[in-house]
Specification:
The structure holds 3 protein chains of 3 kinds. Chain A is 49% helix and 2% strand. Chain A is mainly α. A two-stranded antiparallel sheet of chain A has the order 1-2. In chain A, helix 4 (86-95) crosses helix 8 (186-195). The two termini of chain A are 53 Å apart. Mean pLDDT of chain A is 88; it is low at 1-6. Chain B contains 7 helices and 11 strands. Chain B has 3 domains: 41-116; 133-165, no CATH class; 190-336, Rieske [2Fe-2S] iron-sulphur domain (Rieske Iron-sulfur Protein), CATH 2.102.10. In chain B, helix 2 packs antiparallel against helix 3 (84-116). The relative contact order of chain B is 0.08. Chain B has helices at residues 41-44, 46-76, 84-116, 133-150, 156-176, 187-192, 238-245, and strands at 122-125, 202-204, 221-226, 247-251, 271-275, 287-289, 294-296, 303-305, 311-314, 326-328, 334-336. The longest helix of chain C has 40 residues, at 430-469. Chain C is globular and about 100 Å long. The chains are: A mainly alpha, B alpha+beta, C mainly alpha.
């Protein structure tokens, strides 16, 4: 698109000036934002030293949760009371998206999270203050450095019958289910064991000690991170998926091969 | 339907198989001849034939390369201590090499047989499976002569006693297989009792640490074994005892236990203990739903209601889970009052 | 008929068929070594007779005839991979501790069986690959038997003289199930251990002998320390020996009876039309062996199967959600799951476990029915002739419908084994799934029977329609009177033969015997034959076909005449009365809707290339 080159009159801006100005502006504002959010992110995950306070948490609670759980956590016909559930349960339920519940169903499903982490922690703090219950664990419990073999053994005895040996999930009665654990965080594993959400039994520290829980969490985290040595796992559901796979792809391929073999050559 | 004439049927003159309910068509449809041979591309075009030949031997050589790769992979991807990634890589690359080698041979051979080898069709006559009359006569005579010479048919005493001897000779061998089962154990007796006795503490599976009543909180489920079991070694029958003694311990609110359907004096303040062995075919009934108080067995989906004495509410099980009578000893630990009052686990004939 | 010269230096082997090649060979076939070796062997084993019989034996060609080979070749893969495994596996339940590479199992007490399996998987190069090849191949093996059985059933290839081969094949199927079950129970892991627990529970429920049989099997109380060793003996010695023996008989009978073939040109009940064993079938079968092996190895390289390291050692206390047996045992597991609650009674001081007996007896009856089906059909038809033409399923409507009902029954039981996984994946209640399958178990086969039977008869009618009146060609012709008809393309002779029904039967008409009585079994046979053959099409005769063909030709000729007249008229009006009716294919100018004949296309001027798109270049 080169036209005859005209010499620019002195004093006129280059056509690139606007682009350069926008670019500099973007760099500056982006950099400032990144710096600010880095500063904010420097705070610990479980510290309540955020911009939101317990009061904010109360307001959030009243706006989003009180309809079912009552203004003072006493519960209503639509939702149980939250006395004694503690900040651990609140963080679990809200950070996995189970709460706020959208519809009555056999079980509260996981869905997109509705609140930011700060908001969740604020609500948790409010609930904890109003009626104390289980709190967050120490970092050591969640560090994933426990005894893998012991943890796996405890998992098989206490958890695998619902969640499956590989944590692929399983069926319960009347449309309920134990979810898959392949994407669950260490904190939420701990929280579920301690708070026993919905029909999951409660595994208090008198049943599974903190060390036991650390071992179980470690074995689950290890399983999440480790490559499957045999190849693609087909969902880790066992012989059902293996059988389905072999019929569809194995026999399917082989029958296609027989059709090819006996077809007349071109 | 044409008369299918076996060209050699005259040699089986005595054979006239009945067609049964088949309908004889008087004017059957005529059989056309083999259609004219349709030339393949490789028949018509020598360049195509050369291409096909090239494809075949290229694939065979590719297979050689793949086999060499598989051997190389065996050495290039050793299993490093503790590294699952190395296990995966080792098996993956050896496997892919072998797979390619085999598939290449297969594809090449099939391509050879389809495109290069002559595809002229041949016709071969069938013979009736039945032997020719002469052959059958010979066979008959063979048996006849043997019968005459041995007197097998005539001498019924010899024949019948032979059969009796042959049949009887098998019996000792069969009897020896009784040794598969222990000689001095009574299965009914063993099945009717478990390791639990009066005063034996309930303990956590698998550590064997005893459980206090105060440790069993509402909504929790403990997997329980007798305290003594934890010190039994595998050689001394740990698994056999465990297979009958496993128990699930749960706590409900006392008012949630329906009195008519529960033995309340076998419970302790809402804590109940039930055998974990399913009364259907013996899987562990381990799924406890704390809000519905239902126990679910994962094998065939039998469901038991803990608030109603573990009665069957769904699925193929027929009997409620046996309940372990529990109490608390003076240190606050949960103990069994006695063994189960009925055999645990799947039903058996002698159970009543 | 080999002619061996007595010159020991140049002994040539003649192929039996080509006697005229005698004088033309100056070099021995395959070279001196090969011919010498062949001679050596023949003089000691009479091998030439074998080669003469089988070397050029003709086998018919159809893809469905290769389904049995899926089973055969995958069995070879199972044998080869299994042999490798036996060098590493220890079939012992002696307790030991795992000290190998897989961390979550390290230090755990387990049987030597599981420990050796883990060691093979994680410490031996290629060990996990061979384990996975073995297990995937076993799944393919049983599936191959299944599809092969279905083919044989639906084409009636079990009729005389092949009834015995059906029985042998069925026993092979049961043996394969046994091999699979004993095989996956060997590692003594949690999943297969629970499977053994279930078997033990089922055995205990058998009246009279159950308790003692359970003690016999396990050498005492469950689980004992004997079962893995005993299953190993079954798995590598007894069952494979019987399997291989029966397999050899199965294949020999197939060779003696010769394979069935579908109807087609030159194919009759007393010949076989196809390709010879050497070289075609040898190559196809050999090639298929490598392809089957290759597909199995490919799957085993990419996909995990039976991750025993995740299940851990068998212990009566833990259990995994989603506890199912391998697919081929699924129908039995499903049968157990579908029993409603409470089917057990204490009567006369004994427990009668109908929740176990009904599935056992029901499945047993189903299996026996499948086993004896050829004999039932033979009794009904009374047909004692040899049948070598494979029927198209639609032509045996009742048999196909019965087969569909049987398959539906089996499929419902199979689906029931995964009721919990169906529930979680389709967001249903497991109770709903089980209730639906309970209903389907009764209703499904009935519906499948009726729908299939009607479909078969409809397809037969469609075939009849095509035979008599040809295919709809899509050409719509307007007759002078103004009506539109669609021209039917007659079917060619070779295709026609494929559609003609080989066998037709009619129901039995009972007649009193010499004593003026009608035996009860004759009445039963008449009733069953009515059920089988009441709905049928009358067989087609050659005169029917000739008549229809004549009518078709007449119509087609008539239409062709009218077409000719019209085109001629158009040409005359265009001033080219001598133009050809059919466009001359000069290889360059294709026919389009705008240019029906190339009479209008001028040749390209010299020096210029022929334009591709005439209309555009001519400015139209």
């Amino acid at each position: 698109m080169a036209r005859d080159t005209k010499r620019r009159a002195p004093g006129r801006r280059s056509p690139w000036a606007a682009a350069a100005l926008i670019g500099i502006g973007l760099l500056l504002t982006g950099g400032a934002y990144a710096g600010a959010s880095a500063a904010m992110a420097a705070t610990g995950e479980t510290e309540v030293k955020s911009a939101l306070t317990v009061e904010d948490g109360k307001k959030l609670f009243q706006a989003n949760c009180a309809t079912c759980h009552g203004l003072n956590l006493q519960g209503t016909e639509s939702g149980p009371s939250l006395y004694g559930v503690g900040e651990l349960a609140v963080e679990f339920q809200v950070a996995t998206g189970r709460m706020p519940l959208q519809a009555q169903a056999p079980q509260a499903p996981q869905k997109p999270v509705q609140f930011t982490e700060e908001q969740i922690l604020a609500m948790a703090a409010f609930v904890q203050e109003t009626a104390p219950g289980p709190t967050f664990p120490s970092d050591e419990t969640l560090d994933g450095e426990g005894d893998l073999a012991h943890g796996a053994e405890l998992f098989r005895i206490n958890c695998a019958m619902c969640h499956n040996v590989a944590g692929a999930g399983g069926a319960l009665t009347e449309g309920k289910y134990a979810p898959a654990l392949d994407k669950t965080s260490a904190l939420h594993m701990y929280a579920a064991m301690v708070t026993g959400p919905q029909n999951m039994p409660v595994f208090s520290d008198m049943n599974l000690t903190t060390e036991d829980k650390r071992d179980i969490i470690s074995s689950l985290l290890w399983q999440q991170e480790t490559v499957s040595p045999g190849g693609f796992t087909l969902g880790s559901l066992g012989p059902v998926s293996e059988g389905l796979f072999i019929w569809i792809f194995g026999i399917g391929t082989l029958i296609a091969v027989t059709v090819w073999i006996t077809a007349k050559s071109n | 339907m044409a008369h299918e004439e076996d060209p050699l049927e005259h040699e089986r003159a005595s054979w006239k198989p009945s067609p049964g309910l088949a309908v004889a068509v008087t004017d059957p449809v005529h059989t056309p001849e083999v259609p004219p041979h349709r030339e393949r591309v490789t028949d018509k075009d020598p360049a195509a034939m050369k291409r096909a030949v090239r494809t075949v031997y290229t694939l065979f050589y590719l297979s050689v390369a793949a086999s060499i790769w598989a051997v190389a992979a065996y050495m290039l991807f050793p299993i490093e201590d503790g590294s699952l990634v190395s296990v995966r890589d080792n098996n993956l690359f050896i496997g892919l090499g072998i797979a390619l080698a085999l598939l290449a041979i297969g594809i090449a051979t099939i391509h050879w047989s389809k495109a290069i080898m002559s595809d002229k069709e041949f016709i071969e006559p069938r013979h009736a499976t039945r032997g020719r009359d002469a052959t059958r006569r010979a066979a008959y005579h063979a048996f006849e002569d043997a019968n005459e010479e041995s007197g097998f048919g005539r001498r019924t005493m010899i024949r019948n006693s032979l059969f009796a001897a042959l049949v009887a000779s098998v019996l000792p061998g069969l009897t020896l297989f009784r040794g598969l089962a222990p000689q001095d154990e009574d299965p009914v007796e063993l099945l009717s009792h478990t390791m639990w006795t009066k005063g034996m503490r309930l303990a956590r599976d698998p550590e064997g640490t005893p459980i206090r009543a105060s440790e069993v909180t509402l909504g929790s489920a403990f997997h329980v074994i007798p305290e003594e079991l934890a010190s039994v070694s595998h050689e001394d029958g740990y698994l056999e005892a465990k297979a009958k003694a496993i128990v699930l311990l749960m706590r409900l609110l006392p008012e949630q236990l329906v009195p008519e359907e529960n033995k309340m004096d076998w419970t302790y303040d809402g804590i109940v203990a039930y055998s974990k062995v399913c009364t259907h075919v013996g899987c562990p009934v381990a799924l406890y739903e704390q809000q519905t108080h239902h126990l679910l067995c994962p094998c065939h989906q039998s469901q038991f209601d803990v608030s109603r004495g573990a009665a069957v509410i769904f699925g193929p099980a027929a009997r409620p889970l046996p309940q372990l009578p529990i109490a608390v000893d003076d240190e606050g630990y949960l103990v069994a009052q006695s063994d189960f009052t009925e055999p645990v686990g799947p039903s058996f004939w002698e159970r009543h | 008929m080999s002619t061996a010269t007595h010159d020991t230096e140049h002994v040539t082997l003649e192929p039996a068929v080509h006697e005229d090649a005698e004088a033309t060979r100056d070099k021995p076939l395959g070279g001196r070594f090969i011919s010498g070796a062949a001679n050596y062997i023949d003089e000691r084993t009479s091998l030439s007779g074998f080669v003469k019989e089988l070397g050029r034996k003709v086998f018919p060609d159809h893809w469905s005839f290769m389904l049995g080979e899926i089973a055969l070749w995958s069995f070879v893969v199972v044998l080869l991979s299994g042999t490798f495994l036996t060098f590493f596996f220890q079939a012992s339940m002696v307790p030991t501790h795992y000290t190998g590479a897989y961390l979550p199992m390290r230090g755990i007490e387990m049987s030597a069986a599981l420990e050796s399996t883990l060691r093979l998987s994680f410490d031996i190069r290629g060990g996990l690959l061979v384990r996975q090849i073995h297990h995937w191949a076993a799944l393919v093996f049983v599936a191959g038997i299944g599809v092969h059985m279905l083919r044989v059933f639906f084409t009636g290839a079990f009729r005389k003289p092949r009834e015995l081969n059906w029985v042998i094949g069925f026993i092979l199927f049961i043996l394969a199930l046994g091999e699979g079950f004993t095989g996956y129970s060997l590692p003594d892991d949690l999943l297969s251990g629970n499977g053994l627990r279930i078997i033990d529970g089922m055995v205990k429920g058998i009246p009279l002998i159950g308790t003692w049989t359970s003690f016999l099997l396990f050498g005492g109380e469950f689980p004992g320390d004997q079962i893995v060793g005993r299953l190993y003996t079954l798995h590598i010695l007894l069952l494979p020996a019987i399997l291989v023996g029966l397999l050899v008989v199965h294949l020999m009978l197939m060779v003696i009876n010769k394979h069935t073939q579908f109807a087609g040109p030159a194919r009759t009940n007393s010949n076989v039309v196809g390709f010879p064993m050497m070289p075609i079938y040898m190559s196809k079968m050999g090639g298929f062996f490598f392809l089957t092996f290759g597909v199995i190895v490919l799957i085993a390289s990419l996909f995990t199967i039976n991750p025993i390291w995740a299940y851990g050692p068998y212990d009566p206390s833990p259990v995994s959600a989603g506890t199912q047996p391998d697919w081929y045992i699924g129908f039995a597991d499903g049968a157990l799951r579908l029993v409603p609650p409470g089917w057990e009674f204490v009567f006369l001081n004994h427990t009668w476990s109908f929740n176990i007996l009904v599935p056992l007896v029901g499945l047993g009856l189903f299996i026996v029915l499948v086993l004896i089906y050829p004999f039932i059909e033979a009794w009904v038809t009374g047909d004692k002739r040899e049948r070598h033409i494979a029927e198209r399923p639609r032509n045996a409507a009742t048999r196909t419908a019965i087969g569909a009902a049987g398959v539906t029954f089996y499929a419902v039981l199979w689906a029931a084994a995964s009721s919990d996984i169906i529930a979680t994946h389709f967001k249903l209640t497991m109770e709903g799934v089980i209730h639906a399958l309970q209903a389907l178990l009764i209703v499904g086969p009935v519906i499948a029977y009726f729908v299939t039977k009607r479909m078969c008869i409809a397809l037969q009618k469609k075939d009849r329609e095509i035979l008599l009146h040809g295919f709809e060609s899509g050409r719509i012709v307007r007759l002078p009177g103004g009506e539109y008809i669609e021209v039917h393309q007659p079917i060619d002779d070779y295709e026609r033969w494929k559609l003609v029904d080989a066998d037709a039967f009619e129901p039995l008409v009972v007649r009193p015997n010499s004593r003026g009585r009608i035996p009860w079994h004759q009445n039963v046979r008449a009733a069953v034959s009515r059920w089988f053959f009441e709905d049928r099409l009358a067989p087609l005769t050659q005169s029917d076909l000739d008549e229809a063909a004549a009518h078709q030709h007449h119509t087609l000729d008539h239409i062709a005449d009218e077409e000719h007249a019209e085109i001629q008229g158009a040409h005359e009006r265009a001033g080219v009365p001598d133009a050809p009716q059919v466009p001359i294919d000069d290889g360059r100018h294709g026919e389009t809707a705008n240019r029906p004949s190339n009479v209008i296309v001028p040749e390209p001027e010299d020096g210029k290339k022929a334009p591709k798109n005439r209309e555009k270049d001519l400015g139209q």
